[in-house]
UniProtKB/TrEMBL annotation, chain A:
GO terms for cellular component: plasma membrane. This is Cellobiose transport system permease protein. Belongs to the binding-protein-dependent transport system permease family. It comes from Asanoa hainanensis. GO terms for biological process: transmembrane transport.
Automatic annotation (TrEMBL), chain B:
Pfam families: SBP_bac_8. Residues 1-19 form the signal peptide. The keyword Ion transport does not apply. The keyword Metal-binding does not apply. This is Cellobiose transport system substrate-binding protein. Keywords: Signal.
From TrEMBL, chain C:
Residues 1-12 have a biased composition (Pro residues). The chain crosses the membrane at residues 33-51, 92-116, 128-149, 161-183, 204-229, 261-282. InterPro entries: MetI-like, MetI-like_sf. This is Cellobiose transport system permease protein. It comes from Asanoa hainanensis.
Length: 310, 422, 297
């Protein structure tokens, strides 16, 4: 534990004010979060839990109590489980390369570059580009007949791929969009953390003849470990809630392909809530989705922290 | 800290208690001559801007504010505002693809017959009126525009394939959808380079189904598995796909957009609003596209209704405005300025529509073509989940097109998918 | 939870003479290959944005062409004028600036405070409180808009930008991020020394933590501003097109049955220009090495 163990050092004689400061101020600092969350976050949670126990259409006045009916229906709903597997698959294909690339990109951006602000800014450009433009461009790239990717593959004698039609290819395409949009975002987070690593460490390492890549592995990664854990958790949470990319890739279709081959959990939830206006069932899905995210994030946290120790 | 935690849960509990009870019903019948402020929420080009000005001049006590959002956003917002009984506009437009869900739950809307809507019923074809009504006869929407349905075709590709190019002769090629497919086979046999007969099965399926007296619903029951007309619409579309007629250009994708100019498909079932789309997508192909009758007679794709949510403060005044906006005199102005094809049948003898030709499509008499399809369309009850069920069926056709399934496999899956929806 | 609050690695400073020599060595700028890679990355990042400009400078038929256009057309000015006359863009830009600015200031401040408490202070229930904050991020937000709207209607905030600002003034992301960053960046020894000198906690925060937090605060600020600026789901429900944010007017611009992409993307371009300005200003703040002088030197 590295927290300030002030009491032992200073002793109790410092006076009431000091004790109050030490004991009380942490609560004061975290209070804004909890006050606002109690004000605006708790009610929606309780309310959707209540709704999930009803047959509840957004358009109707009558809400019938059905207990756990929505939940039992959910467990027999192949579309829900299909969406879960798609989510996990897309999350794995997108997150691992995304975080590795982000780390490398941040390492490059951390060097003394000419036009530093420009390069750093360009990392966030994909994230601010209009989604309409992104959707058009990616469907051009992944087009079956005239798409750039199929043309390049064709040079190597690979047959035309109908990207939207197959499960694996649509997952690759959606993941590519995710990687394109979010790598720079994570790179900036890493870049911030790298600012706290003493430059002297790199200096002595390059004196010892360590290559840039070795410096990244041996110095940077251990030093920014808490931030790496942060990004892993965040991408887990974000990845489990992916909505925009599969929606865009399917041309705004809510089912995520003709066979729901790239419909994610969040997209399924969206379909139920705002395509069918079935608020009760959507609320139940939402709660189950929340529990799944908690479990996946916990597992991931366990793995990441174990890696740390080894 | 303790004080905050004590207060906030109480506030939340209070809100929980009141939120479920809906809002207080204000005075809905504000005097008509007092100042009235009305908001009209639409999605897209209803072409009402000038009409609002005109109405405000006619009724100096009325102030109109317009809200325009994207179609998806509009309906999603409306659902949220209806669910919470607050925030909806005084007049809310509904689109064909969504209206079935709203007419199935009419309790949040004013039954317009209470304000005398039955008096103006004759303005619309029966189907348009029915779609805007609930099953027990509550009228929640007044029709604005309609899509109608025709068949757009490429004269240059037809010529290359040795088919007639004159629109009267072309219409004679396909009185039925079976003959449409036969024509398609002839077209494919001619092997016109880079071109197929039609874009894809989506619109074809919808058109065939729309021509049946009973569609997905028979009363309260979903009859997808037992209604031969649904199966027929599916089978014919599947047959067109398996016969190799499809260019496999999914609607609204870049490949489809490009197809208009490039000529990758020779025919396309097209509602009236599609004309503007083709004209922008294929600006330089003027004269290459022409318009013939749709196989099987009447049809419709798209069109909207104006509704009055109950939560509004001035529902009577809102109705008066909606009635005025959908009246023939106003709809014809919208048609002339913006091209939205009116659903008002009483207008179809008006020279503005009867004599309307489109120069881009070789001066095709589109006013008459689309009037005919709207007036011959038979009323069919859509049902609350029609949109979702159609999505499942169209997904099934897409699976065939993508080569993932045979028609039989696909239909079997459609039936389970539809069952899961109910 | 202890693992996220790992002690900072104890660095061994190189001997004084060697250090001076490397200073010169490490001043060497990165090679051509680095710039080549960066240029490639920048190309892929910028291309869709550039292409939006292309479409915005054409008319709507441009999208139907094969191959699609890649050069600028002459319609940009015309489309800009159309966008500004069709929707209240000035008002939307001001609103968006107020919303995103207020949210950013608040998130950065409260996250740094809370992050400091979680990373460096000891108090009862710390781990469970941090975990619960992280847990709030896992709640799918899609459905929350309905009850949140009811709440806003009760306190009569619907249609006002308070409804967009206040619920977003703190978030788990910021708190967790700052906790992780500060656990690494601020040496505990320094804080202890400050305590021994009789500094109050808030003074430690002000004089030690806040300067050290600068790079992370800049990045958190950028990301928060961007998220707040781009948020459309909730603003579309709770605001009206009469008093909108930028994303609300963008929905109006692409409202046609046939989307006019030249208009929609022109709107999108107007919407991102302020973002670029914020990025440049905050991007310059990502400067490391502040602590080095104070701690090691």
């Amino acid at each position: 534990m590295t927290q300030l163990a002030t009491e032992e050092r200073v002793g109790p004689r410092r006076g009431l004010l000091h004790r109050l400061d030490v004991k009380g101020s942490p609560y004061l600092y975290i209070a804004p979060f909890f006050i606002l969350f109690l004000g605006f976050g708790v009610f929606p949670l309780i309310f959707t839990a209540w709704v999930s126990l009803h047959e509840w259409s957004l358009l109707s006045e009558e809400h019938t109590w059905i207990g756990f009916g929505n939940y039992t229906k959910l467990f027999d709903d192949p579309a829900f489980w299909n969406a879960l597997w798609n989510t996990v698959s897309i999350w794995v294909i997108s997150t691992v390369p995304q975080l590795l690339l982000a780390l490398v990109l941040a390492h490059i951006l951390n060097q003394r570059l000419r036009g530093q602000t420009f390069w750093r800014m360009s990392a966030l450009i994909p994230n601010i580009t209009s989604v309409a433009a992104v959707a058009i461009i990616f469907s051009q790239l992944f087009g079956r007949d005239y798409g750039l990717f199929n043309w390049v593959l064709g040079l190597f004698g690979v047959d035309k791929i109908d990207w939207t039609a197959n499960t694996w290819s649509s997952h690759v395409a959606v993941s590519t969009m995710i990687i394109w949009r979010w790598t720079g975002y994570n790179a900036l987070i890493y870049l911030a953390a790298m600012q706290a690593v003493p430059k002297e460490l790199y200096d002595s390492a390059s004196l010892d003849g360590a290559s840039s890549f070795q410096q990244l592995r041996k110095i940077t990664v251990p030093a920014i470990r808490p931030t790496i854990i942060f990004t892993v958790i965040i991408s887990t949470i974000g990845g489990m809630q992916v909505l925009a990319e599969p929606l865009l890739f399917g041309g705004n279709g809510l089912t995520g392909g003709s066979d729901r081959q790239f419909q994610t959990l969040a997209l399924y939830l969206y379909e139920v809530a705002f395509g069918r206006f079935d608020f009760g069932y959507a609320s139940a899905s939402s709660w189950v989705m929340f529990l799944i995210i908690v479990v996946v994030a916990a597992i991931n946290f366990g793995i990441t922290s174990r890696l740390r120790r080894s | 800290m303790r004080r905050f935690t004590a207060v906030v849960p109480i506030a939340i509990a209070a809100m929980l208690a009141t939120a479920a009870c809906g809002s207080d019903d204000g005075d809905n019948q504000a005097a008509d001559d007092g100042p009235v402020s009305l908001t009209v929420a639409t999605f897209g080009e209803f072409g009402y801007k000038e009409l609002y000005e005109e109405y405000m001049k006619l009724h100096p006590n009325v102030k109109i504010t317009e809200r325009i959002t994207k179609t998806e956003d509009h309906h999603k917002n409306l659902a949220a505002h209806l669910a919470t009984n607050t925030g909806a506009a005084d007049i809310e437009a509904l689109e064909e693809g969504w209206i079935g869900q709203f007419t199935a739950q009419p309790s949040k809307f004013v039954d317009l017959t209470e304000y005398g809507a039955n008096d103006i019923k004759a303005q619309w074809p029966e189907w348009k009126w029915n779609v805007g009504s609930s099953k027990d006869g509550k009228v929640i929407g007044l029709g604005t525009d309609a899509g109608g349905m025709a068949m757009c075709y490429r004269t240059d590709l037809f010529q290359k394939a040795g088919l007639p190019t004159d629109r009267a002769e072309v219409s004679k090629l396909w009185p039925t959808w079976e003959q449409y497919i036969e024509t398609g086979k002839k077209f494919e046999a001619a092997k016109v380079p880079g071109a197929h007969f039609f874009d894809g099965p989506t619109v074809m399926y919808r058109s065939i189904l729309g021509q049946a007296p009973v569609g997905l619903y028979d009363g309260d029951n979903v009859v997808v598995d037992s209604n031969p007309d649904v199966k027929k619409a599916f089978d014919l579309s599947a047959q067109a796909v398996t016969s190799g007629l499809s260019a496999r250009a999914e609607a609204w994708t870049p490949a489809w957009n490009a197809g208009f100019a490039k000529g990758t498909f020779a025919t396309l079932a097209c509602p009236s609003w599609m004309m503007a789309y083709i004209q922008t997508q294929a600006k330089d192909a003027s004269g290459k596209w022409d318009i013939a009758d749709v196989p099987g007679g009447g049809g419709n794709w798209g069109g909207s209704w104006l509704t009055v949510p109950k939560q509004g403060k001035h529902t009577k005044a809102a109705y008066e405005l909606a009635k005025w906006l959908t009246a023939p005199e106003q709809e014809v102005k919208v048609f002339q300025k913006y091209g939205n094809f009116p659903s008002t049948v009483t207008l179809y003898d008006d020279p503005a529509i009867k004599d309307f030709v489109n120069p881009y499509f070789n001066n095709a008499p589109v006013g008459q073509i689309f009037s005919k399809s709207v007036t011959t369309m038979k009323p069919q009850y859509l049902g609350p989940k029609a949109g979702d069920i159609n999505t499942q069926i169209i997904n099934g056709l897409t699976r065939i097109e993508q080569g993932k399934q045979t028609p039989d496999q696909s239909w079997a899956q459609v039936l389970t998918d539809v069952k899961a929806l109910l | 939870m202890a693992t996220t609050l790992a002690p900072p690695p104890r660095h061994v400073s190189p001997p004084q003479t060697a250090r001076r020599r490397i200073r010169r060595l490490s001043r060497r700028r990165p090679g051509k290959l680095t710039y080549l890679m960066l240029t490639a990355i920048a190309f892929f990042s910028f291309f869709p944005l550039y292409w939006s400009v292309v479409v915005a400078s054409q008319d709507n038929s441009a999208l139907g062409k094969i191959p699609p256009p890649v050069l600028l057309g002459g319609n940009l000015w015309f489309n800009l004028k159309r966008a500004f006359t069709m929707v209240p863009f000035e008002k939307a830009l001001i609103n968006s600036f107020l919303v995103a600015g207020a949210i950013t200031l608040s998130v950065v401040l409260f996250s740094t405070l809370a992050g400091f408490a979680f990373a460096k202070l000891r108090f009862r229930g710390r781990n469970i409180l941090l975990l619960s904050i992280i847990g709030t991020m896992m709640v799918p937000t899609t459905l929350g808009i309905i009850p949140l709207y009811m709440l806003m209607a009760k306190i009569q905030w619907t249609g006002t930008i308070y409804a967009v600002i206040v619920p977003a003034m703190v978030n788990g992301f910021g708190v967790f991020f700052m906790t992780q960053y500060l656990s690494e960046a601020v040496p505990t020894e320094l804080l202890e020394a400050g305590r021994v000198d009789g500094c109050s906690t808030i003074r430690l925060f002000w004089h030690v933590v806040l300067p050290a937090a600068r790079p992370a605060a800049a990045v958190l600020g950028m990301l928060t501003f961007l998220t707040a600026w781009n948020d459309f789901f909730w603003p579309l429900v709770v605001l009206t097109p009469e008093d909108p944010t930028v994303q609300v007017v963008l929905s109006t611009l692409s409202a046609g049955r046939i989307t006019d992409y030249s208009l929609a993307l022109t709107g999108a371009l107007i919407a991102i220009l302020p973002l670029l300005v914020v990025f440049v200003v905050l991007g310059k703040q990502i400067i490391g090495g502040i602590m080095q002088g104070a701690v090691k030197g």
